Amino acid sequence: MTEDSFKITVHMVSSLDGIIAKKDNSVSWFDTADNYENGVTGENPEDFLKSIDCYVMGSRTYEHAIELSKSYGWAYGDVPTIVVSHKNIKPERTNIEVFAGDLIELVNEKLKPTYKNVWLVGGAILAQQFIRLKLANEIRLTIIPIILGSGTYFLESIGQEQALHLLDVTAYKNGMVELRYEIKNSNS
Amino acid sequence: MTEDSFKITVHMVSSLDGIIAKKDNSVSWFDTADNYENGVTGENPEDFLKSIDCYVMGSRTYEHAIELSKSYGWAYGDVPTIVVSHKNIKPERTNIEVFAGDLIELVNEKLKPTYKNVWLVGGAILAQQFIRLKLANEIRLTIIPIILGSGTYFLESIGQEQALHLLDVTAYKNGMVELRYEIKNSNS
Question: B7-40, pLDDT tens digit by residue?
């Protein structure tokens, strides 16, 4: 795969026990109070965001992002964002589009012709569907230094083996570890 | 904590989705065919094993290790090994002892007076009990580059939050990543 080729990345932030959301949806556990001396500091967030040209998310992730935007602003900027849902959602921003069709059609007819670097940012069920159908090319998992003990698991019900290839490991000063894997034999 | 102080390490090997054992107990998924160029090669296994002066395990982990020993030899050498179980187990080696009491008693009366570097190597339920009771000081999780999709989860039913402190991250040439965490506010 070259730098210029089309790529879908599943990006998740989880606890060490693989939980991406607490039952009450609170997000304070993201703010780790940890300090890892050998870690690196984060990339410049602006450079980082610039490389992503489309976000894809499920309806509950969208609704949660809208809720959070009331306090913190909309997290995904002006980047085109596709909400995969059969619900009757009225997008609250002009760069948001709702897609109610099949995921293979989404990838082949909407994403591939227009975008290069697509990030799927949740939720767990949509991420699992992309991995199960081999539509995602990479998994980028950021592990927060905490055990949550209950909540929504990133990969709990995927029910299918998938070989991975480790691409990169980054440990940050705040104790977060980012693991980047290629999904072997993906279809897109 | 100084180098000389007593320490209990929970050591687990899991898939990216946090599974430590497949339903059929097969272990071929441990032999990753992955190649991570930036990784390091493993430590000298002999140096590594020498630092551990006691292994603790549950009965099913013990029975599985005995089963594997028929093909590959006993994995834990002559290091004293304590099997925590109420079952009537007759140890197959002289360095194996069965303990049927309370875990706090195990730590305070059997482990602390005699050992420095205790490794708890499974199973999931015993590991979770040690973490829940704050009897373990460290978690060392080795992540294999695979999604298994079903099996026994390392931390599925722990049901309790636990803050961690990242101590170390090591990526190996075979695509395995070892994460080492301190369990904050442990009791032992």
Answer: 999 999 999 999 999 999 898 999 888 999 999 9
Whole-number Å distance between alpha carbons of B151 and B155: 12
Give yes or no for a contact between A5 and A135, defined as CB atoms under 8 angstroms apart.
no
CATH number of the domain where residue A119 is located:
3.40.430.10
* Number of domains observed in the structure of chain B: 1
Q: Which amino acid does the sequence have at B86?
A: H
Residues in chain B: 188
pTM for the whole structure: 0.93
Cross-chain Cβ contact B149/A158 below 8 Å: yes
- CB distance B120 to B10 below 8 Å: yes
**Within a domain: A44:** yes
According to the model, what pLDDT value does residue B79 have? Answer: 95
B188 lies in some domain: no
pLDDT value for A188: 62
In a domain, A11, yes or no: yes
CB-based contact, A16 to chain B, within 8 Å: yes
What sign results for the dihedral spanned by CA atoms A122, A124, A129, A130? positive
d(CA B61, CA B10): 13
Encode pLDDT of A56-79 as tens digits.
999 999 999 999 999 989 999 999
Rg (CA), chain A: 16
With respect to residue A32, please indicate whether it lies within any of the assigned structural domains. Answer: no
B184 touching chain A per CB within 8 A: no
Interface contact flag, A158 B171, Cβ < 8 Å? no
Query: What chain A residue is nearest to B155 in terms of C-alpha separation?
Result: A17
Domain that holds residue A66: 7-17+38-151+164-172+179-183
Identify the CA nearest to B182 among candidates B51, B7, B6: B7
What ipTM was predicted for this assembly? 0.93
